[in-house]
């Protein structure tokens, strides 16, 4: 097992643990306002300091972790639930009108980044975490569809697939029983990548006010609140920024390690 996988799993587990613990315990109520204690640097009472209205930043970071993880998790789930079946369907009908429609639909979605989609959705339904999930999820669908189609196409001409077709199995059954298990490693790695991108996307949407709304903490909105106070209280920007960096770094390292672990050829090439 590679060092990247171990380190990535440790960093990711740390963030997930903080999110889980926040359901039962935080040092302080993350919504509690204590104006006399505002803008305090990290100290023995408030381990990571306080913000502009005296809220405990450590508590907000813990609750913000579950916000980011929940948004990214559901958004990636949307991408998996719709993208993988579409990719398998397109690969099974390579060159046909179904394949063409799915791929051109993917190109259309790729033309609009998740931030633009979020702005459109927000203009209709209003800002919020649910709309951020929908926007990021829609953007994940073509990603998983393309990865699935690319991996499946490389298998459709293999001997064991031809044998399954000779045995009378239909395209749908072959896709589920033979294609999907053989591209599972590729999809697992892609999940970790998209999860890290989902964390970044959620932070970006919250930064511009389109993500989770107050009083729910969000790392992106914490950065937005801190941008005018960097010279006075730099910890307000450094703490959520480091939380985002640690989370994304951990997921990327874990994805890189999983890719090496699941593909022996890559592991041998690096040794």
Summary of the model, kept short:
By secondary structure, the chain is an all-alpha fold. It is 71% helix and 0% strand. It has a single domain (3-270), classed as MetI-like (MetI-like fold), CATH 1.10.3720.
Beta-strand percentage range: under 5%
The CATH architecture assignment turns out to be Orthogonal Bundle
Range of helix content: over 70%
Poorly predicted residue ranges: none
Specify the CATH homologous superfamily: MetI-like
Largest sheet: none
Coarse shape:
elongated
- What is the CATH T-level topology? MetI-like fold
The tally of helices reads 11
For the residues shown, what is the average pLDDT?
89
The ordered string of helix (H) and strand (E) elements is HHHHHHHHHHH
Gap between N and C termini: 13 Å
Structural class given helices, strands, pairing?
mainly alpha
Please state the CA-atom Rg, rounded to the nearest Å.
22 Å
Count of beta strands: 0
CATH class, named Mainly Alpha
Domain count: the total is: 1
Oligomer: single chain
Write the layout of secondary structure elements.
Blueprint: H1 3-21, H2 57-92, H3 97-110, H4 114-125, H5 129-153, H6 159-166, H7 171-182, H8 184-207, H9 219-226, H10 235-262, H11 264-270
Helix pairs in contact: 1-2, 1-10, 2-3, 2-5, 2-8, 2-10, 3-5, 4-5, 5-8, 6-7, 8-9, 8-10, 9-10, 10-11
3D structure, described in words:
The protein has 271 residues and is an all-alpha fold. The protein has a single domain, classed as MetI-like fold, CATH 1.10.3720. 71% of the residues lie in helices and 0% in strands. The chain contains 11 helices and no strands. It has helices at residues 3-21, 57-92, 97-110, 114-125, 129-153, 159-166, 171-182, 184-207, 219-226, 235-262, 264-270. Helix 1 (3-21) crosses helix 2 (57-92) and helix 1 packs across helix 10 (235-262).
């Amino acid at each position: 097992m590679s060092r990247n996988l171990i380190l990535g799993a440790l960093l990711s587990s740390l963030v997930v643990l903080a999110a889980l613990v926040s359901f039962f315990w935080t040092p302080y109520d993350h919504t509690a306002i204590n104006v006399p204690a505002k803008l305090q640097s990290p100290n023995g009472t408030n381990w990571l300091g306080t913000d502009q209205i005296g809220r405990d930043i450590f508590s907000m970071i813990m609750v913000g972790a579950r916000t980011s993880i929940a948004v990214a998790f559901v958004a990636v789930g949307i991408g998996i639930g719709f993208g993988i079946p579409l990719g398998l369907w397109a690969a099974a009908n390579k060159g046909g009108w179904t394949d063409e429609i799915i791929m051109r639909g993917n190109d259309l979605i790729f033309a609009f980044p998740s931030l633009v989609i979020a702005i459109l959705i927000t203009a209709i339904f209003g800002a919020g975490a649910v709309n951020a999930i929908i926007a990021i999820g829609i953007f994940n669908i073509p990603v998983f569809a393309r990865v699935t189609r690319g991996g499946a196409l490389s298998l459709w001409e293999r001997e064991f697939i031809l044998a399954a077709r000779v045995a009378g199995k239909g395209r749908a059954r072959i896709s589920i029983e033979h294609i999907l298990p053989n591209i599972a490693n590729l999809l697992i790695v892609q999940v970790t990548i998209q999860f890290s991108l989902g964390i970044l996307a959620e932070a970006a949407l919250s930064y511009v006010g389109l993500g989770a709304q107050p009083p729910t903490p969000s790392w992106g909105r914490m950065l937005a609140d801190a941008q005018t106070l960097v010279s006075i209280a730099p910890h307000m920007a450094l703490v959520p920024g480091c939380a985002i960096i640690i989370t994304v770094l951990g997921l990327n390292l874990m994805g890189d390690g999983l890719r090496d672990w699941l593909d022996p050829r890559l592991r041998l090439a690096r040794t």
